[in-house]
């Protein structure tokens, strides 16, 4: 048989993908290719960038006993990638709708999906696939998804009270479905028909609500021309240089002025504002440079002068899906009357905030700025330029951070668990977590497990859930990981032995927490020392005076 033969819909992987699958380095894969005559030959690509058939790679890894095993969720993802290489969003919709409607058609992906749905539910299959799609570097033709961190930040600003919500660039619907009241009227638009379809499907199955999402280019062909709502949220596409300015010169949405050709963001901002009802708000994600670019000064000035802008919030880097730069949130409110217009703008600088921590600004991170102070030649809306930072006491701060660092390092050394050498054999058959869940012995809480039986230790379960083998099962060829608790395997041990392991896993968790805190303190210590030494607040000690 020709080892290079493969079907047209075969999933292809690179050498880097194989390395991720097997949890080895790319150098190891290169060695396998040289040393093993039966290693699968490339079926496509080039000499410098060969592509291999995933099915052949799987079979070879199994024969070589490389410890490779995939969860059902990962197998479904790969099957979808093979059947829908150009649009995973369409594939997810087709599969989930077939599950929901109990369709008679069949495919490899649908067979796997039916197995998973029997173990969990159609909704859980949808949630798992959407999570993987949002985190995948290979989304096909769908690249319209706000990150979960950005959604959390916007939700904190927007609240959960709005009775009508609109998102003119809703993508997969993550932002549209996260804000507003549970029974809010939700509407949206997106240029990608598959993303729009998936957003509506998520509303129905994941959120038990409804959302009407229309397809089309929101700027060139507004599908909701007379639609006015209480809350508009928008994370505009970043690759939108040709937004249709020449076609929209006389458009009534430009209440603040015609956006320059290079200012697509200001076109999206005004489009969002055009859909606000009196008293309604628009919360729009903007680049940091939109706050000061000369080309947008006239529109910024008009927005401030009319009292439409109420807040500018600087967020940390790492929130956007398309780039790693910091972003701002601009909050506009449509006055109900002339006397209802804003007289000041709240500036918030959270650009140094912890991405995983609370997003509540401290007192020194915010300031209220009168409109007149913003209306200068630049109309610079960068929050950091309007917030007066307190003069730090470098010496006191440095001493405090050093003291805490010493305490944490002492505790860290004491927390490190003592472990003995094992025989690399845990022995006995392994239990599948899905069976424990089905029998009511274990509950899933997010990406963690909780024992409901006195025969199973919770810390033991969560420790083995993160084993290399279980992580490998839940990682796709492209490196996308999502905890798939049901497919995880646990060794069989009596409860006393489980508790011994559980205690060590608890200790490791505490050790990891303290290590992260130590790393934060090291960064603070170095920053304070360098700042103090270079501005005169700190000086080197004199050994003769100590």
TrEMBL record:
Keywords: Methyltransferase, Transferase. Transmembrane segments: none annotated. Pfam families: N6_Mtase. GO terms for molecular function: DNA binding; N-methyltransferase activity. GO terms for biological process: methylation. InterPro entries: DNA_methylase_A-5, SAM-dependent_MTases_sf, Type-I_RE_MTase_Subunit, WH-like_DNA-bd_sf. PANTHER family: TYPE I RESTRICTION ENZYME HINDI METHYLASE SUBUNIT, TYPE I RESTRICTION ENZYME HINDVIIP M PROTEIN-RELATED. It comes from Thermobifida fusca TM51. The keyword Cell membrane does not apply. CDD domains: AdoMet_MTases. Residues 152-352 form the DNA methylase adenine-specific domain. This is Type I restriction system adenine methylase. The keyword Ion transport does not apply.
